Amino acid sequence: MRTTREHRLVGQTRTILIFILLASLPYNTAKSLLQQKKTLQSAGRIQYYKDFGPEDIVLEYGAESGVLQPPWDRVRQEPGYSQVKTVSDVARTGSKSVKFETLVDYVRIDSYPYTECSIREYDLPTEVYLSWWHYFPAGYFTNMLEVKDTVGGFKYMWGGRDNEWRMRFMITATGKVRFSLSGTTIPDEYRDYAESSISPVEGTWTHFQVYWKESDEGHGIVRAWYNDFQLYERIGSGDFYTDPQYWDPNAPDGPRAVVQRYTSENDPAGYTYADDIVIATEKIPETYRVDRPSISFESWEDGFESGDFSRWSKAQVSGPTEAWVNVTSTYAYRGVRSANFTTDGSHGSSARVIKTVHGVTEIYQRSYVRFEGLPDNSNTEINTLRVAQDDGTWIASAGIYNLSGNIYWMVEVTGFPLNYTLDAVTSGTWYSMELYLSATTNGNATLWIDGALKCQITGDFSEVGDIARVAPYVYIDGAQNSAKTVYHDDFRVDNRRISADSRASSIELMAEPDTIWREGGTSHITVQLKDARNQTVSQSGVTIIVEVSIWAGPVGKEPTLIYEDQGGLSVTVTTDSNGQATITFTVQSPWGGALIEGSGFGLSSGYAMIMIEPKSP
């Protein structure tokens, strides 16, 4: 554990708790909470999370496979009463999530079956984090009766079901978030809980995280975060007491992780969703999304500066007459070398270098490409990026296409129609070409040029074959009038978005004004893409979710975000040519405050705070 950073943040979050408990006015409570929350999000968190990486992950699950077992050790459901399944109703990342559904009203009597529905992972490390996002649909809290719904946490088993510790997040009958530390055989004086004064927002994703360090020498720790706000901490947990008569020497040494919908009280039928579930040995950032198909796959790149293809799996040429590939210093996007791929222009001729990438269902590849000559004839193509099966069978490709003398960017997937977009493509210019392929039931093939989306094909790609090879290359589809050369440089393959050199790495949100008076008013929130040097990035077509991540104000007086034809607590925006988007924020409330979060795939989130003052100056 890197305790120095963690202890620093604990001190900050304790300060927030003091404000919540001692503030005399609701407005002051909201302002103190949001100011310190924003500080944690925009400053301390960057330092805290910088060491989190794939090596820390024990299990991650985003439901995209559509399969629950494996990886989960157990899926608990009661046929006819409750069920757990992957669905496409709503998702935080990708297109699927896990749905926990109670099919009938539950009455607390001994003869009635439990309506618990859960997914569990056993035998975890004795120091571990569990992070997940929960979605409560509209009307969820309105329908609650005397319910305390459990949504997830850890169980620590000394023996059977009747002697265990539960460290869990719950939703109370008033719609508040509670973290409870209790055990079936544990005396009341050892039980403990903390409850937030802020309810989750229906129709948006809520983040929960629990940390457990087991110790039988009084050094154990339990911490819990709700939307990255530390709600609970207990240190020196040697007093996690249970009577030795209940100990089972055959019980697992570590805790069990559970994500679920479960109640021990009367419970109406209903459902919730979970996504981006991660178990790790380091604290998981809120910005993390389960978007990687295989955590064992590492990014790989080559700029041909070695002067040969020794790092590649294979170099290959084919065609009726002449084709070649070599490293050259004639042109280079970066450094002093690039790779020259040339054919005589005959139909079916090609030259390529191959990198194998076994065990993935989705992949990104990016290359800087320079065309020395465009397609000569209509209905012909020059392909430059390729995805193939292990035996070389083609799956997908991207390149340029001549249609009636006009040049189009194009992407193609086996068994699907060509997708193409007209553009002013020229010879002798370096272009960043990035091709993404997801070979799943929710298949996607996307081509970005210089960071801007140009072409896309979607559909069921589960039968296109297993991804095993990627290749920068030249392939001629349709005879040309002359030889064709394509230069490649700075090639990279990854399991996440790569983008161009000037790619955005973060999101900045700016609210103007950042204060609205109690009579009601409007603020305008500007979304701006920034690069790693905090410079403005003018990149269009980037999708960003902007949402009210915290509303500290009266229930029923929540603000509204407006973007084009969307309106609510969350909107999805697309950046313009300046890398910007503008959202309108409106509210009618006597007091309060809102923390607005902007998040995007592969981008660090941005935050803005808007306060509703109780009176005019």
Summarize the helices and strands and which ones pair or pack.
Elements: H1 3-22, H2 26-49, E1 57-61, E2 74-76, E3 82-87, E4 97-102, E5 117-121, E6 127-135, E7 149-157, E8 164-171, E9 177-183, E10 192-195, E11 205-213, E12 221-226, E13 229-235, E14 256-262, E15 270-280, E16 300-302, E17 314-318, E18 323-328, E19 338-343, E20 350-360, E21 362-372, E22 380-388, E23 394-403, E24 406-413, E25 419-422, E26 430-438, E27 443-449, E28 452-459, E29 467-477, E30 484-494, E31 506-512, E32 515-517, E33 521-530, E34 543-552, E35 560-563, E36 566-568, E37 570-574, E38 580-587, E39 592-600, E40 603-613
Parallel strand pairs: 32-40
Antiparallel strand pairs: 1-15, 2-5, 3-4, 4-15, 5-14, 6-11, 6-15, 7-8, 7-14, 8-9, 9-10, 11-12, 12-13, 16-30, 17-20, 18-19, 19-30, 20-29, 21-26, 21-30, 22-23, 22-29, 23-24, 24-25, 26-27, 27-28, 31-33, 33-38, 34-37, 34-39, 35-36, 35-38, 39-40
Helix pairs in contact: 1-2
Overall 3D shape:
globular
Give the averaged pLDDT, no decimals. 79
Strand content: over 45%
By secondary-structure content and strand pairing, the structural class works out as mainly beta
**CATH topology group of the largest domain:** Jelly Rolls
Can you give the helix content as a percent range? under 10%
Count of distinct structural domains:
3
**What is the rounded distance between the termini?**
48 Å
* Poorly predicted residue ranges: 1-27, 36-51, 108-112, 159-163, 238-249, 292-296
Major sheet: size, sense and barrel closure?
8 strands, antiparallel
CATH C-level class of the largest domain is Mainly Beta
Named at the architecture level, the CATH assignment of the largest domain is: Sandwich
Rounded to the nearest angstrom, the radius of gyration is: 27 Å
Q: How many β strands by DSSP?
A: 40
